[in-house]
Amino acid sequence: MAGIFQRSLRLQRALRHLVPQSPLSSTVTARHSPLDLHCPFLPSTSWQFGICCRKLHTGKDGPKPSPAAAPDRLPFSRITQEDLAFFRKILPGRAVTDPDLLESSNVDWLKTVKGSSELLLRPQTTEEVSQILKYCNSRNLAVNPQGGNTGLVGGSVPVYDEIILSTGLMNNILTFDSISGILTCQAGCVLETLSLHLEERDYIMPLDLGAKGSCHIGGNVATNAGGLRLLRYGSLHGTVLGLEVVLADGRVLDCLATLRKDNTGYDLKQLFIGSEGTLGVITAVSILCPKKPKSVNVVFLGCETFEQLLKTFQLSRGMLGEILSAFEFLDSECMRLLNTHLKLHNPISDCPFYVVIETSGSDSTHDGEKLHNFLEEAMTSLLVTDGTVATEDSKIRALWSMRERVTEALTHDGFTYKYDISLPVERIYQLVTDMREHLGDRAKSVVGYGHVGDGNLHLNVTSAAKDPALLAAIEPFVYEWTAGCNGSISAEHGLGLKKRNYIYYSKPSSAVSLMGNIKAMLDPKGILNPYKTLPDDLK
Amino acid sequence: MAGIFQRSLRLQRALRHLVPQSPLSSTVTARHSPLDLHCPFLPSTSWQFGICCRKLHTGKDGPKPSPAAAPDRLPFSRITQEDLAFFRKILPGRAVTDPDLLESSNVDWLKTVKGSSELLLRPQTTEEVSQILKYCNSRNLAVNPQGGNTGLVGGSVPVYDEIILSTGLMNNILTFDSISGILTCQAGCVLETLSLHLEERDYIMPLDLGAKGSCHIGGNVATNAGGLRLLRYGSLHGTVLGLEVVLADGRVLDCLATLRKDNTGYDLKQLFIGSEGTLGVITAVSILCPKKPKSVNVVFLGCETFEQLLKTFQLSRGMLGEILSAFEFLDSECMRLLNTHLKLHNPISDCPFYVVIETSGSDSTHDGEKLHNFLEEAMTSLLVTDGTVATEDSKIRALWSMRERVTEALTHDGFTYKYDISLPVERIYQLVTDMREHLGDRAKSVVGYGHVGDGNLHLNVTSAAKDPALLAAIEPFVYEWTAGCNGSISAEHGLGLKKRNYIYYSKPSSAVSLMGNIKAMLDPKGILNPYKTLPDDLK
């Protein structure tokens, strides 16, 4: 009882601090610390798919491949000296064949997939991309489009010897209209560079990711990246206003409109958002950007049950309304890993569940008052048992890191099996509980965290080392459980190489079949990002 | 000077009224008065396309048809007694052939297009729609999908004898999740019915249209309807989470997800949003709905120049921020027509431009303060010269009607040529000015109004009667002008029958060609809504 009283006191002190409120920083808080997408390389996770691929490629008596393993190499042409001469001519000094320089482009960020491409092309213009694809299509050469190579499902690296087509040198900001907030840029612009460019002009990007220092906007669009601002600003299907895309045969599709409304025919750009480079190469993007919020607050709260956490979410939607910009959660297992592996100190008392709430608004006094009223109601209703409030940049960053560094903590816990699941919001933690019970002692840790506001759970299971028996216990259990709730087996990471064969858990065969028709229509030879997104059994 | 002082005084009185503010109504203001889509039938506008079609169909020596006229009837089958027997069997009592009952379904809302369908089918279930299309496809019978028939471009009625497939009896609300705010319903639900259903549950629909009392959600999605809330809640490409669609051959495509995030393969539903019933028949929709705002305010302001109006828009975005929910405008010519034809009284002094601003928020005190500060700044900076504020429902409705009833006023002014243009926001009024100068005395009135926040101008030109010479002076001038600014010749109305051949002003031929490929893939016999959306010259 004394403990509860003490915790309440702490929150009340925080509340007193909040109203009347000290002026908040007028800048949006930069979050440079690693997020979901970032973890240091672990030797134990290295090359699992690379090995698998090689086995499939070179031998026939290995173990039966998992659905995630790559299929045999398709009968694409192999690069000849004539091909190289062509690429060197149209891309002087930008057709890279040095194996050392190719190394990092052949390996995905998690170091779980490794290709063996011998050619990296670095075009600077749409015309060059067009020439490359026209040539590759005529020669039946496979192409792996690559942005910042920060994907988590093996979609951004070659599986065999596909030519890597990097957007790295296509990094020009083309226009920014400060009245409408519409930005147009080449596909290779790094997300963080765009964010900084906009913040100087009193705008922000409508998406924010942990990988923002590396990822390219073209890759973000190609993978329909979600991230931290989706709750507030919606998906890229709504904010992307135009795309320029080079099709497999080199045709340039100019849908780079900069208009909020345009109902002249089918909205073709939508096809390429989330198609993971399998339907075309995005070369330029126009996107609607929101005004930079003048005030940002972050609170870190503790809840006794997930039901209380959900009630807190509902309360926040009602009382914080239009200023609510993030509602994230982590469980006590995540906190244990943060403490153990990263020595991060729990800023409040121990609870089964923790919540990070961010508000972004145009008036710091109003925002502070809304937050104060919400917290008072949440405390009075006993929905939250403890909490702390941050209005200053450094403390905001510290609180965010409790959510953002969970992935990093996990990498120190052992080999990690990662799942990115969409579910009806009221079900998202049940999967963690059921998985924990299902696995029993077989797992080292089973943790859940993610974007409550979007119904998006990051479920992670660790073991001391790679463990096929554990994997067999997790899958297809996790996918069947998800399908049973009409959930999605990939909320924001995409399918790439690793999850392509699990698509039927979330999509009916009629839809998958139509996807195949669209692929065949736009890329009849299948040269664009082969072995990705679409399942192997697609006819 | 005295006049300016008096006007300032009025606005200051309004401001005093605003802060401290009286409690606002907690309901969202219903706007039942006609909007852009509504105008009484005018004899002078009747059957212009109907006549045109008949001429094309029955004679060869009439005048050269305009690009808007329908092409010759395509070689679809004609309905036989066997066909009728089949439809009567699967839709007992719901296969309508009585000409009187068919009359209203054969004519569009503006009474400018008239078809001659002899069969109206009224399915209740997806399975029935599937059976209908499977049969029609096998028999090569053309089908015109029809929702509330409120479209403005002749897309929702048959051109010749297409079978009308109405969604009118598919009007069940399937589920509403009060935690996530996700609604699923059949395609024939009337938008206003859904709005009322949600408002009882403390939510609203993310779109609002003048036609809401008649239009169906399926039609809204099929035409990618814009409307009054787009500025705040974005387009249907972002808010529609799932669709169930019956394809031309009767296959049911179940993409009726109820998840905010799902990156498992291509986002197929996007293809059908805005495809105007030419790629499939939408049978069910899931859509993300926002919480009902607790406070709504409306202000009506006058500006001396359009430049000041744009600066006022910029100021409102900065100072009203997250509570800004509409920024609409009308010019003094609109006001003259409102006065003359509808006897509506200008609530402020005469100005060249008028602005309607709406705020929607979660805290009436905060919203009132933000609005007060914004208005004070707008006055002090001399951006607005007069204005009035409404916090009560009846006055809010009165102010909204000044914007919403412009279309109605236009119908009393004579024959109306209507254009729905997207432009970079800073250019939108230049088109009105240029058109006025270009037409000189040939036009009776040239007026501009619309959605400043979306860069969407409604340009209307009236004449005493239908006037081919005037039309020739307007078109292609208006389309060329728009194309010169990379604008869209149809921001929200779509292409339908009337504008299909103007698509090249806003889309490159490579995009139009790809649209044709998609149409051929999904509807190889072209039975779905023929003569619409795609241009006649499409191969």
UniProtKB/TrEMBL annotation, chains A, B:
UniProt superkingdom: Eukaryota
Matching Gene3D superfamilies: 3.30.465.10, 3.30.70.2190, 3.30.70.2740, Uridine Diphospho-n-acetylenolpyruvylglucosamine Reductase, domain 2, Vanillyl-alcohol Oxidase, Chain A, domain 4
Localization: Mitochondrion
Enzyme class: oxidoreductase
The reaction(s) this protein catalyses: (R)-malate + A = oxaloacetate + AH2
GO terms of molecular function: (R)-2-hydroxyglutarate dehydrogenase activity; FAD binding; metal ion binding
Keyword Nucleotide-binding among record annotations: no
Family, as annotated: Belongs to the FAD-binding oxidoreductase/transferase type 4 family.
Name of this protein: D-2-hydroxyglutarate dehydrogenase, mitochondrial
Organism per entry: Eleginops maclovinus (Patagonian blennie)
